[in-house]
Amino acid sequence: MQAIAEEPHEDLHRLVLADWLDEQGHPLRAEFIRLSLQLARMTEDDPHTRALQARWSEFFTMGEDHLEWWDIRTELVPGVELLYERGMLERAEVTAERFPRIAAQLFSQIDCRQLVLLDVENHLAWLKRPELQYLESLALTGELLSETLARRLAHCPALTTLSTLRLWIPEISERCLDELRRSPVLGDCMIHRWDAEADQEVRLR
Length: 205
What we know:
205 residues, alpha/beta, seven-stranded mixed β-sheet, 9 strands, 20% strand, elongated
């Protein structure tokens, strides 16, 4: 797992993990990783793609009798969407309003390093959750980043280990951006925002 974290784009580490899972008696997890890697390398016009995609989808409809698979089902924590890439958990998505109520459950059941919080405007309670300290990447979505939220975000002690902050929010004032740029907490964290005119992310620092 450490090798995967250090070199996330290297498929060999994931294949080694799949072999280990097979040896430990977890064939479904191993199959999911191999299948996901295979699909990532295939094109849509490949004659085998449709069959492999159908098998990949079956993993998310398996019943509770497949207990070894329970930890990667998308409905593991109610109200949270878990997204996978190349066989591994990529990130969790949940509304900012709901996150404070399920944070403890979410982080106790999965190794969540990347989080997307939806509709952050008018919600501040999520900033008090200690589980934020486990994140490497945080993305915020909504219509507006208020000055209050920007200030709380810039001084949230649980975010000192954050390496990437993404602001997928169309309306952000320069005052808010300056607050984040000067944050004593975010330190070496890379901050990106969504540029609607350019239709792409731009790095603020």
